[in-house]
């Protein structure tokens, strides 16, 4: 949090003072579960890493926070923790610009919504005064009158079959892909998605 701005007195690092300031910042954010203020950031959860970044901004007396897709790698419970923190900061007078393509998050958190399309402002409205359908129309540039169902899926023969794939980072992974099929792999940051792809090509074994 204080990297590059460490409190120093008579040329000596004031660790105690720095730790006290960190504790105060984390308490302000409601991060009482982070008990060790000297913890290595890389060992924290993704959600806690993001909240530590917010704490760093607040340590510099930031009055406006800009968050770009902050929930892209968070679980549902972590999203709720982040929203709780953001609401606390809002109550403390901090302005927040929340950038997201997730409509449900925007409508839950924001007071006003501005929609951009092709780099231009399409419209701004108070959250409770605009319908989701109107927001979608602003986003895509046309009225969404019809929803097209998925065509029936008819699987082909097996194109790739993986059984018990293991490497330093993935363990006992099995799946198959058929011709004409799209197989999606999902997971949070650090779940092993990239490592699985590298193991498939023999880069990491």
How many helices in DSSP terms?
6
Structural class: alpha+beta
How would you state the average pLDDT, rounded? 84
Portion in strands: 15-25%
What is the spatial order of strands in the main beta sheet? Answer: 1-2
Shape: flat
The amount of helix comes to 25-40%
- CATH top level assignment of the largest domain: Alpha Beta
Q: How many strands appear in the DSSP assignment?
A: 8
- Fourth-level CATH superfamily of the largest domain: P-loop containing nucleotide triphosphate hydrolases
Domain count: the total is 2
Radius of gyration: 23 Å
Outline the biggest β-sheet: 2 strands, antiparallel
Low-confidence stretches: none
Based on the coordinates given, report the CATH architecture of the largest domain. Answer: 3-Layer(aba) Sandwich
The third-level CATH topology of the largest domain is Rossmann fold
| Succession of helices and strands | EEHHEHEHEEHEEH
Task: Characterise the protein shown here.
This protein is α+β, with helices and mostly antiparallel strands and 205 residues long. The chain folds into 2 domains: 8-110, P-loop containing nucleotide triphosphate hydrolases (Rossmann fold); 158-200, no CATH class. It has 6 helices and 8 strands; from the N terminus they run ββααβαβαββαββα. The strands form 4 sheets. The chain has a two-stranded antiparallel sheet with strand order 1-2. The protein has a two-stranded parallel ribbon with strand order 3-4. A two-stranded antiparallel ribbon has the order 5-6. β5 (112-117) and β6 (120-126) form a beta hairpin. α1 crosses α2. The longest helix is centred in the middle third of the chain and has 16 residues, at 76-91. The mean pLDDT is 84.
């Amino acid at each position: 949090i204080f990297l590059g701005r460490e409190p120093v007195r008579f040329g000596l690092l004031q660790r105690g003072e720095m730790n006290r300031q960190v504790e105060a910042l984390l308490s302000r954010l409601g991060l009482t579960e982070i008990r060790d203020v000297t913890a290595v950031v890389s060992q924290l959860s993704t959600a806690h890493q993001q909240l530590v970044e917010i704490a760093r901004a607040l340590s510099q007396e930031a009055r406006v926070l800009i968050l770009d897709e902050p929930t892209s790698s968070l679980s549902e419970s972590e999203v709720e923790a982040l929203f709780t923190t953001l609401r606390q900061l809002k109550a403390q007078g901090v302005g927040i610009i929340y950038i997201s393509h997730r409509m449900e998050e925007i409508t839950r958190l924001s007071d006003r919504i501005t929609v951009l399309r092709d780099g231009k402002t399409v419209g701004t409205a108070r959250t409770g005064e605009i319908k989701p359908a109107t927001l979608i129309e602003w986003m895509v540039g046309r009225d969404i009158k019809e929803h097209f169902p998925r065509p029936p899926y008819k699987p082909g023969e097996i194109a790739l079959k993986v059984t018990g794939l293991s490497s330093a980072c993935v363990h006992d992974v099995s799946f198959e892909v058929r011709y004409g099929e799209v197989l999606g792999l999902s997971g949070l940051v650090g779940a092993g998605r990239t490592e699985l792809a590298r193991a498939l090509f023999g880069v990491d074994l």
